[in-house]
Amino acid sequence: MSGSEEKKLNSLHEEDSLYKAQGGKAAYQISPTYGQNTLYKVNPVHDAWERALAAESICQDILTSARNQLYLNMRFMDCALSALFFQGDMGIHPVGTDGTVLYYQPEELMEQFRRSQEKVNRIYLHSLLHCIFLHCFPEKDEEGNPVVDVQYWNLACDITVENIIDGLYLKCVHQPASMVKRQALQLILEEGKVMTAQRIYRRLQTLHLPENKMQELRREFTQDDHGKWYENHPNSPQMSQRKKNWDDIRNRMQTEMETFSKEAGEGGETLVDQLRAQNQNRYDYKEFLRKFSVLKEEMKVDMDTFDYIFYNYGMNLYGNMPLIEPLETKEERKVEDFVIVIDTSMSCKGELVQKFLEETYSVLSESESFFRRIHVHILQCDEKIQSDVVIENAMQLKEYMSHFTVKGGGGTDFRPAFAYVEQLMRAKKFTKLRGLIYFTDGYGIYPAKMPPYETAFVFMKEDYQDIDVPPWAIKLILDTKALERERTAEHYEY
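Structure (tokenized):
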């Protein structure tokens, strides 16, 4: 901020003190135009309006200055820094965001600036990181109520971004860490793991800290207001677009930091690790299964292209001669032959496998999802093939699920399943194998050769590590918490 702007801020502060001393009432002051001999009456409403406009202008300058300083030190964040608009809000303390606007309380923001420019820079970056890592879009139910414990989630998000900022070692946002803060990080963070907000959230829940300790942590880590996070409905088109925009920004940030690693600085490793963890593909399994389909022609009346107007006109005009006949066939997306392999090693939980099959059944049972006859091999495999069940319709899958038991329990080796499928292909057991889906925890030996069909490894998010999955395989991550919730609720979202 320039010297003139600082003078303006100081002048505004002095005027505020004078106005409060007058009790906020109308008063007579010396006219600046005509001197000591002329008094004029102050209009409190007009004066308050002018003060508000002046404060708005100053706050805009303060935030613009903070944004510029952050950009000069972190040019890889250019898109993120330009993604938020500034807007005053008397209900925010001192700033907060909904993923589109950075709201601020004018008086509180100016007070923070009077204390330290670095403090304002840090608050700005703190809120921005919440957007980048989608903290401001907490998971909600269909009615818009958060499914997370708000107190734990807010604190977990604050701890995450504060740990990232401390790891950047940037002078423009530097604040000495207190002993309480350092001890808290030692207690909460787990060595060797990327501590995302989700992981810290679960960690806080397991610690069962007393309320006075939680309050102490909030005083140390809280920088902004999270009230705007919980105001919008999760299924609104605006919310979906906001999340998509931040997904794009985050992916670009990771690319730029990995490409221009020197620019990120020596302390950028923590931020890069967080970006990689957040950018891991999280996929709705139902949607993925629907993509294992092809266009196929089936003998069926195509009512979508049937024009009733011409049909009825011909019947009325000629008695029994329609002018247009409905098409006899149409193209529909149908799932072809594919294989599901279930890792039955000791590390895979039976209830999660059951839920995985339920998700599969929900897609198979959808109208017009499959041909009248389907051909799905469900394999159970640990170090060897334990069972092979052929499913030819949705009812058979339902029956299989009702009597499902895990077979095996040894180590994990993916190669026997691929070798077995190769044998089935040589024996012409498939009309056309569309793909293979392997439900696993990821700890196993992968085949060295790429198979002649699409392959997806479905990992449990809770246990997932950054394993060296072959480049020819699709990598999906399922949220185990969401899977478990789905067993008792209809809501399911990522």
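Residues 286-300+332-486 form a domain with the Rossmann fold fold (CATH 3.40.50.410). The chain is about 45% helix and 15% strand.
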